[in-house]
Design goal:
329 residues; mainly alpha; 69% helix
């Protein structure tokens, strides 16, 4: 194994190219965030009802479902189930193999996905508690009574009260649907998008690159190895159920997440002579720059697949369930 603490390991053309590439990706990502995220936030802060930019998020979009026929409680139940499952797996893996597992990108991403489901569950609980009367069946019950012939016309006093209630409901509805999300709402959406891209990236790299060509010849698969590269796909179920937007420019956060991990690995190996958790990170190979560029392009592929899933979901639901599909404003 090459000594990674030796200055000659770093002072060469391979590291120069890889370093420029990684830093270039980070600068590119920072520019995208400055250009689009700043505009979205400033527009949303300018007025609650004003149409924001590409990354605008409304409060109800963090915890409601994509169809009116699916109660948000189902999304909450799934998020709680996923959080408990993922938390049990990552804690068990840590207990069995030690804290050193977080040298791997997979475990770091898995932990982030677990955090997402935990925070998303809190958002769902908060939303349901704040608007628990907004999902009643009063209107549906009245219509059903009319159809059955059991409907009794309201008295004048009831109509007056109903009018006041209606105005109150409209006001509540405006608060429910028109208010833009706060800081933590945007953080949730950003973490969600990073997790979606990173989880799919780890699965693609492991099952299509590492396992067929590298891992299967040197290691035996075990429960945790398979779980870490498959269970994180539950995030796609959340993607199908939830109502959150998936703007393209937020791939910048995904790239920054991976870039920070790479720099962390460089600093760690420059200080301590360790084996590389992933062979393609090893800078001793003449093909290292190509590996770094190739994995970078996989970010576009994995993120693009999730974007495609979201777009197909929106298109199919809007055509198949036009009256119950919750469209973006």
């Amino acid at each position: 194994m090459t000594d990674t603490t030796n200055p000659s390991y770093w002072l060469n053309w391979r590291f120069l190219i890889c370093g420029v590439w990684v830093l270039g990706c980070m600068v590119f990502s920072a520019f995208f965030i400055w250009k689009y995220e700043g505009g979205s936030r400033s527009n949303s802060e300018g007025g609650e009802n004003e149409r924001g930019g590409a990354g605008v998020l409304y409060k109800d979009e963090a915890w409601t479902t994509c169809l009116k026929g699916i109660h948000p409680a189902w999304l909450l139940g799934f998020r709680l189930f996923a959080f408990i499952l993922l938390l049990a797996l990552i804690v068990s893996n840590t207990v069995v193999d030690g804290g050193g597992i977080f040298i791997f990108y997979t475990q770091c991403t898995f932990a982030l996905v677990t955090i997402y489901f935990g925070v998303a569950s809190v958002f769902s609980i908060y939303g349901l508690l704040q608007h628990r009367d907004g999902f009643g069946n009063n209107v549906d019950s009245r219509i059903l009574d009319e159809e059955r012939g059991n409907y009794v016309a309201p008295r004048y006093e009831d109509s007056e009260n109903a009018s006041v209630s209606s105005k109150s409901s409209v006001h509540d509805g405006e608060d429910l649907t028109s208010s833009t999300a706060g800081f933590f709402g945007y953080v949730l959406q950003i973490v969600y998008q990073v997790c979606a891209g990173a989880a799919l990236l780890t699965d693609i790299v492991f099952w299509l690159v590492l396992y067929p060509f590298l891992t299967s010849h040197n290691f035996d698969t075990n429960f945790f190895l398979v779980s870490m590269h498959s269970v994180n796909a539950v995030l796609l179920i959340d993607t199908i159920l939830n109502r959150m937007r998936f703007p393209l420019f937020r791939i910048a956060y995904f790239i920054l997440w991976t870039s920070v991990y790479v720099i962390y690995q460089w600093i760690l190996h420059a200080c301590v002579n360790l084996w590389w958790p992933y062979p393609f990170l090893d800078l001793s190979s003449s093909f290292a720059p190509l590996w770094y560029m190739g994995v970078s392009l996989l970010h576009i592929v994995s993120y693009g697949i999730v974007v495609l899933i979201v777009r197909v979901k929106q298109s199919w639901l809007s055509r198949s369930f036009p009256e119950t599909y919750r469209r973006f404003r």
